[in-house]
Amino acid sequence: MAQSDDKVVKLPRRTALKPTTLSESIYQEVRGRLQRGEIGAEERVLDYEIAAEFDCTRMPVRQALLRLANEGYLVGTTRGFVVPTITSDDIHEIFEVRRLLEPAAVASAAAVLTDKQEGELKKAYQKARRAYDKQDVDQMISANVEFRATWLEAVQNARLRSTILRFVDHAQQVRIGTLNNRSTQKIVIDGMRALLEAFVERDPKLIKVAMLEFMLNAEQQYFALLNGDKSDE
């Protein structure tokens, strides 16, 4: 009996790429909404609603939401996903981790920050400045996210970058309500300005100090508001 030397080569299915790409898009969109505080603590994130929004099946949505749950952004329940409850002790720990990681990370970005990235930092700061003058909280949040994303992009260690982003986002979900306070907004503006000036000088030591001071002020303000000091609202 003759044997064929031909081998069957199984080509990858091109359609297999679509769910992965779509899942990533959904992941980025939902995470962005969490960063901006557009998903409230009592709001349920339902896969079929997002699937209808993206005009897709529920599978890529489930993939995205499970990824967000694995990273601590969401918690799965019997009725969809919700934002996790983060206690004051959790916030203390998050700030502690950030103090250990962020000053060194942002200082490391000084040597590799491009002129384009410096320009993006300036644009984000000016956007925050305008938002502060207009008392536009949504734009303030957006500018803060853009500013952070820009310098994080310059951090060369990908694992460090993703770890910092995750901890910052978790704190942001809780702190976002405090940005209605004018004193908190002033801390954000002053912190961004100090970091920007240090980046313009490309001075890693100055950047490190500016970041640490920014974080300490933000933490102190958060807990002051939590304990009932709501002056300057």
From TrEMBL:
InterPro entries: GntR_C, TF_FadR/GntR_C, Tscrpt_reg_HTH_GntR, WH-like_DNA-bd_sf, WH_DNA-bd_sf. Keywords: DNA-binding, Transcription, Transcription regulation. Residues 20-86 form the HTH gntR-type domain. Gene3D superfamilies: GntR ligand-binding domain-like, Winged helix-like DNA-binding domain superfamily/Winged helix DNA-binding domain. SMART domains: FCD, HTH_GNTR. It holds the Pfam family FCD. This is GntR family transcriptional regulator. It comes from Paraburkholderia agricolaris. The lineage of its organism: Bacteria, Pseudomonadati, Pseudomonadota, Betaproteobacteria, Burkholderiales.
